[in-house]
């Protein structure tokens, strides 16, 4: 296995993750949405989610629902994001776990500090991506955000985490 | 230090028929009064029997800030126990749920049955014969009642029965369970816990507020498909109703009868859910099944904390005068797996901290809380629909879908409870 060069390099992984976080933080919704493949899944499990088809998740968006989420944000009437939260994502502990037919699997830890009238909220956890190369571009087909406090009461989470 | 309680006269002044004072949402003394005169007195919804199907099952629930263990003992009986060791007060259950032969306190090792009885304590020699185990069980919510699997508890030792408390809300719960071909709901699809910096009454009042959806939810109505905008418009045939006892509902049946299409209330059609529709016809007969599927699910706020919101169940938990947790789970219907998948999918989009609907509702609760601290004007106006309010055939006050008949009904009951004019 050591002879096969990874389809996506570590540098490319890092660049993608940082860019994805920055586009979300800056509310560049169209550019953020363009990072997803057509068969994408954006998933934030709750403390109760064992199987997302059996228990409710905080977010369980297939591609069409990602589009709906972005479209709602872009109406300018998504009150929970109007004004937009100021958010700074920090990514660390990035690992490339491996690669299979689905793509390159990565994991990282994150902290996202959110500021709005409510005050500062600290969001933290582990984020897992599945990345694929399509026509020279790197896209994500899966992003799972495992919040450290997924089992606790959460404040409103209307920005792109 | 608890703030001094307000006297009855104060509440008569602060709660008028068509306006309420802003301090009712912000004054910690009012919150303390509400705990003692409402939350620790009336029937409060705790959990559903389907959450603890097996002997030994337990879930940790709440009555306001009080942590409550709802358990099923070896014989199958349900108990509401306080999550506090009878020895020196440790919280017993840390996990949100489990199955066990005995609940153990990890401080000094006392163990309790899932019926709350003290089973034993380590190093027995330290206790003489004058320490009877039978008197040292876990604390218990004095009264417990169950209706259609919905378990309620009351800290009042005496008072109206659960059925008396539910009153006209009972019929709405019946309408909910008949959506299952087996006549049972199952709250087994997990919970989201959404914390807001707002007073609990803002949530209760919003649950049957038909005036806000067009404005608060306009973003999702603009980009998604939803029948909700239509239901809460001036054209709607729906009714806002004060059922008494603080219970309020939006009766949407007239609206959906006018549409006369099965499952329109759920934004879908029969051909998408063939198994469910077949099971319903087999259970109720074609005619009755059609009626049930046309009329849809109830939208009712059972005072003070159970909101049956058509396709999901919310439970409101006050923690402080400006802190509330809203727990929510998708409705699941016994004997309807295809329907349940859709119910779960739809709820995942709509509710909870990131929900297309609830994130904006919660934003409003918090803005409302920040607004009512203003010194001027001091009052919130609840006059909408007074000009067209009527008494319906069942003797309930009824208004148009967007009217504040519901908020007035909620406050009338809160006033009666805070002035202690009604039994719990
Ligand atoms: S406090 Fe529970 S055993 Fe001592
Ligand atoms: Fe709403």
TrEMBL record, chain A:
<keyword id="KW-0560">Oxidoreductase</keyword>
<keyword id="KW-0223">Dioxygenase</keyword>
<dbReference type="GO" id="GO:0051213">
    <property type="term" value="F:dioxygenase activity"/>
</dbReference>
<dbReference type="InterPro" id="IPR032710">
    <property type="entry name" value="NTF2-like_dom_sf"/>
</dbReference>
<dbReference type="Pfam" id="PF00866">
    <property type="entry name" value="Ring_hydroxyl_B"/>
</dbReference>
<dbReference type="InterPro" id="IPR000391">
    <property type="entry name" value="Rng_hydr_dOase-bsu"/>
</dbReference>
<protein>
    <submittedName>
        <fullName>3-phenylpropionate/cinnamic acid dioxygenase, small subunit</fullName>
    </submittedName>
</protein>
<comment type="similarity">
    <text>Belongs to the bacterial ring-hydroxylating dioxygenase beta subunit family.</text>
</comment>
<dbReference type="GO" id="GO:0019380">
    <property type="term" value="P:3-phenylpropionate catabolic process"/>
</dbReference>
Automatic annotation (TrEMBL), chain B:
<dbReference type="Pfam" id="PF00848">
    <property type="entry name" value="Ring_hydroxyl_A"/>
</dbReference>
<dbReference type="InterPro" id="IPR017941">
    <property type="entry name" value="Rieske_2Fe-2S"/>
</dbReference>
<dbReference type="GO" id="GO:0051213">
    <property type="term" value="F:dioxygenase activity"/>
</dbReference>
<dbReference type="GO" id="GO:0016705">
    <property type="term" value="F:oxidoreductase activity, acting on paired donors, with incorporation or reduction of molecular oxygen"/>
</dbReference>
<dbReference type="InterPro" id="IPR001663">
    <property type="entry name" value="Rng_hydr_dOase-A"/>
</dbReference>
<protein>
    <submittedName>
        <fullName>Phenylpropionate dioxygenase, large terminal subunit</fullName>
    </submittedName>
</protein>
<keyword id="KW-0411">Iron-sulfur</keyword>
<dbReference type="GO" id="GO:0051537">
    <property type="term" value="F:2 iron, 2 sulfur cluster binding"/>
</dbReference>
<dbReference type="GO" id="GO:0005506">
    <property type="term" value="F:iron ion binding"/>
</dbReference>
<dbReference type="InterPro" id="IPR015881">
    <property type="entry name" value="ARHD_Rieske_2Fe_2S"/>
</dbReference>
<keyword id="KW-0479">Metal-binding</keyword>
<keyword id="KW-0560">Oxidoreductase</keyword>
<keyword id="KW-0001">2Fe-2S</keyword>
<keyword id="KW-0223">Dioxygenase</keyword>
<dbReference type="GO" id="GO:0004497">
    <property type="term" value="F:monooxygenase activity"/>
</dbReference>
<dbReference type="Pfam" id="PF00355">
    <property type="entry name" value="Rieske"/>
</dbReference>
<comment type="similarity">
    <text>Belongs to the bacterial ring-hydroxylating dioxygenase alpha subunit family.</text>
</comment>
<dbReference type="InterPro" id="IPR015879">
    <property type="entry name" value="Ring_hydroxy_dOase_asu_C_dom"/>
</dbReference>
<keyword id="KW-0408">Iron</keyword>
<keyword id="KW-0520">NAD</keyword>
<dbReference type="InterPro" id="IPR036922">
    <property type="entry name" value="Rieske_2Fe-2S_sf"/>
</dbReference>
<feature type="domain" description="Rieske">
    <location>
        <begin position="43"/>
        <end position="126"/>
    </location>
</feature>
């Amino acid at each position: 296995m050591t002879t096969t060069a990874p389809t996506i390099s570590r540098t490319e992984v890092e660049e993608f993750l940082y860019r994805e976080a920055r586009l979300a933080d800056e509310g560049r919704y169209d550019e953020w949405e363009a990072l997803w493949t057509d068969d994408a899944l954006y998933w934030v499990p709750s403390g109760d989610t064992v199987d997302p088809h059996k228990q409710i998740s905080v977010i369980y968006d297939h591609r069409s629902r990602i589009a709906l989420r972005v479209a709602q944000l872009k109406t300018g009437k998504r009150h929970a994001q109007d004004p937009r939260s100021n958010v700074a994502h920090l990514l660390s502990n990035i690992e490339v776990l491996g690669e299979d037919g689905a793509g390159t699997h990565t994991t990282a830890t994150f902290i996202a500090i959110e500021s709005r009238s409510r005050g500062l909220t600290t969001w933290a956890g582990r984020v897992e991506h599945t990345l694929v190369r399509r026509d020279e571009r790197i896209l994500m087909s899966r992003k799972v955000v495992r919040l450290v406090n997924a089992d606790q009461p959460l404040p409103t989470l209307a920005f792109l985490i | 230090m608890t703030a001094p309680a307000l006297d009855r006269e104060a509440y008569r002044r602060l709660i008028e028929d068509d306006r309420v004072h802003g301090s009712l949402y912000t004054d910690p003394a009012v919150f303390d009064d509400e705990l003692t005169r409402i939350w620790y007195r009336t029937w409060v919804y705790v959990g559903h029997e389907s959450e603890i199907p097996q002997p030994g099952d337990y879930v940790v629930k709440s009555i306001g800030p009080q942590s409550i263990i709802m358990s099923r003992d070896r014989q199958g009986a349900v108990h509401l126990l306080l999550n506090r060791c009878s020895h020196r007060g440790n919280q017993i259950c840390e996990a949100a749920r489990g199955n066990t032969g005995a609940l153990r306190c990890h401080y000094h090792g006392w163990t309790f049955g899932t019926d709350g009885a003290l089973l034993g304590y380590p190093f027995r020699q330290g206790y003489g014969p004058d320490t009877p185990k039978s008197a040292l069980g876990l604390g218990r919510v004095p009264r417990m009642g169950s209706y259609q699997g919905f378990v309620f508890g009351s800290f009042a030792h005496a008072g109206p029965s659960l059925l008396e408390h539910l009153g006209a809300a009972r019929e709405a719960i019946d309408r909910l369970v008949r959506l299952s071909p087996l006549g049972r709901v199952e709250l087994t699809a997990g919970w989201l816990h959404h914390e807001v910096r707002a007073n609990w009454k803002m949530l209760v009042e919003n649950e049957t507020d038909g005036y806000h959806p067009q404005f608060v939810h306009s973003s999702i109505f603009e980009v998604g498909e939803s029948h909700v905008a239509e239901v809460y418009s001036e054209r709607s045939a729906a009714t806002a109703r004060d059922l008494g006892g603080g219970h309020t509902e939006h009766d949407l049946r007239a609206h959906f009868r006018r549409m006369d299409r099965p499952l329109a209330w759920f934004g879908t059609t029969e051909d998408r859910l063939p198994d469910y529709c077949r099971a319903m016809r087999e259970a109720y007969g074609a005619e009755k099944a059609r009626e049930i599927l046309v009329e849809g699910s109830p939208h009712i706020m059972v005072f003070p904390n159970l909101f049956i919101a058509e396709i999901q169940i919310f439970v409101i938990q006050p923690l402080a005068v400006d802190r509330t947790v809203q727990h929510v789970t998708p409705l699941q219907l016994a004997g309807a797996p295809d329907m349940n998948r859709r119910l779960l999918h739809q709820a995942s989009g709509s509710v909870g901290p990131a929900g297309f609907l609830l994130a904006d509702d919660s934003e409003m609760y918090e803005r409302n809380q920040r607004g009512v601290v203003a010194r001027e004007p001091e009052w919130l106006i609840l006059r909408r629909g007074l000009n067209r309010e009527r008494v319906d055939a069942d003797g309930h006050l009824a208004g148009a879908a967007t009217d504040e008949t519901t908020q007035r009904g909620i406050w009338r009951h809160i006033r009666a409870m805070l002035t202690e004019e009604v039994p719990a």
